[in-house]
Amino acid sequence: MFPVVILVRPQLGENIGMAARAMLNCGATQLRIVAPRDGWPSETALSASAGAANVVQQATVFDSVHDAVADLNNVMAATARPRQLEIPVIAPEAAPNLATAKTGILFGPENNGLNNDDLAMVNQIITVPLNPVYTSLNLSQSVLLVLYQFWQQQTTALAPKNNATTNLAAKKDITVLADNLGNYLTQANYFHPPEKAASMQRNLSVLLNNANLSTQQVQTLQGVFRALWQTKV
Amino acid sequence: MFPVVILVRPQLGENIGMAARAMLNCGATQLRIVAPRDGWPSETALSASAGAANVVQQATVFDSVHDAVADLNNVMAATARPRQLEIPVIAPEAAPNLATAKTGILFGPENNGLNNDDLAMVNQIITVPLNPVYTSLNLSQSVLLVLYQFWQQQTTALAPKNNATTNLAAKKDITVLADNLGNYLTQANYFHPPEKAASMQRNLSVLLNNANLSTQQVQTLQGVFRALWQTKV
After folding, report:
1. Nearest residue of chain A to residue B151 (CA atoms)
2. Is the N end or the C end of chain B the one with fewer CB atoms within 10 Å?
3. Are A223 and B135 in contact (CB < 8 Å)?
């Protein structure tokens, strides 16, 4: 289950729309808005939400944080600046398992963030560790980075593994390629002095074996070597 | 060492400025821009970069991707849509260790992303796994999510994940190698039919760029290609 996003007193409709996009990027669709400065519904929010209009249209609006979190089991607050409150500060990757609690995340207004009253019902403060000399994020970027952590958690089982090794040619095909190249080069008197031939050939074999070649690329190189070799200058 | 960010044909100055902010959030400061649509310098970029103005002011501008990556050892392309090229696709957390290679990341233009020519010198395609039904990110959000992965890696002192990039040749040397091979093969009438010549040449460039070649191995291949080419059968 994905967390509910709660934008507290957001100022710009554009940021609300962009936040909705960031949510949907990360699989979250439940948006709540507390006391939007410019009222609701917002045409600006809708037009900025390109492709995520449903998230904006289905957003619910509340007068207070208190009301907005009433049905939730666990409330986090996203802030770069932990306050003088005794609330556990966690990094997003240490966030509680969402399967066990209906969770909401509070994001503060653009100008000055969440105040201590907003934090009164919060279980954890969540911070994204960024470059300490420059932590300034706009609202939608903040939503994106925090939600992305939850998305990663939910999808780790499905996450693509490094498939850089997919489709690598079989070693036997690379051996044939290296042997053919060796034969061409022997006839071209490339291997000199003769006592170095073996190590030169081995270096070429190492090169070809570490070149990440696919089966198709091995065929391509067979053609390339043959074409060069058959050329009459 | 943090990666170089290369914005390819960006359209809006505002996005360049926001990308600079996202970079600095994640500790990256080296920005390169290829053929910005609205020219350079850009007042819009500067004013959108609040707090990250240095990144924008020190950005360097290039006419082509080719020139922008010439001094790099390892080039990644951030794209949601892997193309029909044989380039390994990796998730950001599987990216090569930056300590061993000067790395750049290409980000495409807002409207239609990177094209196949842009990808010709790329070693890995990097994708952020997002909600498959909604992967639309704006440029600065894309920069933020990708760079954040590198930031996490650098700051969590993880063991190197991939040490295959040690001593990688500079891209400009691989370009010379690919060009020489292309010339030899043109004279060998390898490229037929003629209308396929460009894509055949590009496939060879992709192959050479992804072959993990060291500077020494590039020299070796120069000698190999020359020797084959000069052979009288």
Report:
1. A130
2. C
3. no
